[in-house]
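Protein modeling request. Please complete all fields; requests missing the sequence field cannot be processed.
Requester role: graduate student
Desired output: 3D structure, token encoding
Chains: 1
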Amino acid sequence: MHVMILGAAGMIGRKLVERIAREPGALGAAISRLTLVDAVQPPVPEALRFVSSTLTIDLAQAGIADKLIETRPGLIFHLAAIVSGEAEADFDKGYAVNLDGVRALFEAIRHQGLKSAYVPRVVFASSIAVFGTPFPDVIPDEFFSTPLTSYGTQKAIAELLLADYSRRGIFDGIGIRLPTICVRPGAPNKAASGFFSNILREPLSGKPAVLPVSDSVRHWFASPRAAVGFFVHAARIDTAKVGLRRNLTMPGLSALVSEEIEALRRIAGDKAVALIKRETDPVIERIVAGWPTQFDAKRASALGFKAEASFDEILQVHIEDELGGRIA
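Delivered output (328 residues):
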């Protein structure tokens, strides 16, 4: 099987590649070829060196998607995107990367299929940002998407395209609406949701962090390990069971910022919590106020997708996967 990962240098892309390296059969078939694509050089684990190739390109550039799909990968993960805060700040870049690149890929697959039979599986990284206020207390699978950010709008449009191209048999697509992924490893990024990870990751390493919103903010979370599990499961799932509604809200954990902090206190103590500094940011507050807080993700759960049940579990995943099982 030829597998292509777009956005392979990003956090989830890297972790997905690492999972494949550890578990050669994770995607349901042996990998004969692995193509890793990103705007920066993707890393290649030693275990996959002989089947992997890397490409450093911009998917939104004219003709690039057609060249990628000429190789006819059977499984395509589309994880490439710019994050919410950056998409809101840079309107042109957000639409170029988060929408134009998606449409170019889908059209390249369609054109390749017109030449001869070609219907790959496409697993697309969407987001709960496709939903906007007003919300019910718990958002059901049937709730409509009315995004209130450019990022959410770009993802919502891509979801509609994915469903339509799948309905027409151009590819076999499934959209994964990710919760906010926490705790994200590495340095802070431009995502408006980044502080949810920052207030845990930095104190666990003995560093200060800024909390720009109230402790009473509630949100929907899953760990990076769970996120990779979503994509691996989507690669193998029988999409006949998914039906025509190809975009799924993933299960997750609904928690308050205060509950994050108390989990940090239980695991790392008062010293770690004292490293959190409260500095209100009205821009972040406004963006976060338009985000959903809790879902009844019964469709995805019934299809076998799983996430953590407590913030203690989410913190433990970060400690095991990023800190070698130890905290500062």
